[in-house]
Amino acid sequence: MALVLNYSIALFSGQACQLFHSSEYHELLPRLVTPEPSTPSVEKINECLQDFDFESLDCASRLLILVPDEWLSVTQHSLDHPVSARLLPLAALSFAVESTYATPDNTLYAFQHKTASNLDTQLTVYACSKSWSEPLFSAFQQQGRHCILVAYSQFKHFPSRSWSYCTGQQISGYHPEYEKQQRVRRYLWLGVVFSLAIHFVALGLYWYLEQAVESAGIGYQQVVDVTSNWLQDQQAPPFVSTALTLVQGLPATVRVEGFSVQREQADMRFSLPKSMLKMVMDNWQSAYPNWRWIVVQDSFSTLDQEEVVNVSIQVFCH
Which chain regions cross the lipid bilayer (predicted)? Predict the structure, then answer.
């Protein structure tokens, strides 16, 4: 995805100041090669700004001021030993002060460095005095713009022209706390990213556990349902239990010859005194009037002068 650029560019030259939008920087690049006269005076800059149409400024609050290299002090230095990143700003400041003849507090500078194969450090320093640059800034700052100063050759060779990158390469004063602030800012960002990562991991873990609990609950319910169905299958239906209870409740004088039962039908065979058969059947039929009874008396015999009957009974619960 292309980076969106949203700032204005004020291009200064020996003739005038022209305004561009950052998205038009490709049109600027060919204009950054024309040699310019030496550094103009403060009066010359003010004259140039008097003819500038400030109403043409767009709504972007950020403004990059581009000036020719010839307006600045641009020097190159070769250091025959490696210089740490923490000491490079101080080394560049010392060269900038030397070239502008200004005090460190009154010096604006930027630098670019390269390390050669023999570990020599090549340092390019852009510098100007703060008092000379004030007219460049104040005219636009009065219009509510946040301004940064960049040289032609800097902007031309920037690998990125985003506002954040240009701000990091701008010509500005020495900030001894800048590196510390940058380090603190990086740590803060790392903390934010780490915190967000922890929150996302926690959220993912919570979602995973929630899904696992829900899945376990479904699995448990399925086990309960299967177990319940199995227990129901193992338990005798009410009709079977009742029929078995009837047979078990017969008097001791009744001899059970056979008993079989299904869900809705029972078959009984037993021998008992004929006088007792009517009493047993009356009790059973009065207790379960909705059942259908089929009684078949098979044969008769006599035992101790009492008539005994062999009976087959079929019972249907419906």
Answer: 187-209
Give the C-alpha separation, 8 to 56, whole Å: 11
Closest CA to 294 of 307, 280, 308, 281: 281
**CA 164, 165, 170, 175: dihedral to nearest 10 degrees?**
70
Contacts of 266 (CB under 8 A, 6+ apart): 239, 240, 243, 259, 260, 314, 315
Bridge partners of residue 128, in order along the sequence: 108
Q: What are phi and psi of 169, to 5 degrees?
A: -110, 5
Task: Give me the percent of the chain exceeding a pLDDT of 90.
Answer: 8
CA distance 4 to 163: 10
**Of 32, 168, 170, 162, nearest to 110 (Cα)?**
170
Query: In what order do the strands lie in the sheet containing 62-67?
Result: 17-21, 8-12, 62-67, 146-151
At 2, the pLDDT band (50, 70, 90 cuts) reads: very low
Question: For the ranges 101-110, 210-219, 221-230, 239-248, which has the lowest average pLDDT?
Answer: 221-230
Tell me how far apart the alpha carbons of residues 309 and 39 are, in angstroms, rounded to a whole number.
Answer: 141
Cβ contact 150:64 at 8 Å: yes
Phi and psi at 228, nearest 5°, equal -65, -40
Q: What is the pLDDT of residues 153-180, one digit of tens each?
A: 899 888 888 998 998 899 998 876 656 6
Residue with more model confidence, 62 or 303: 62
Distance CA 139, CA 46 (A): 9
Average pLDDT score over residue span 40-44 = 78
Which amino acid belongs to residue 208? Y
Q: Reduced to 3 DSSP states, what percent helix, strand and coil does the chain have, rounded to the nearest 5?
A: 45, 25, 25
> Are 297 and 310 in contact, with CB atoms under 8 Å apart?
yes
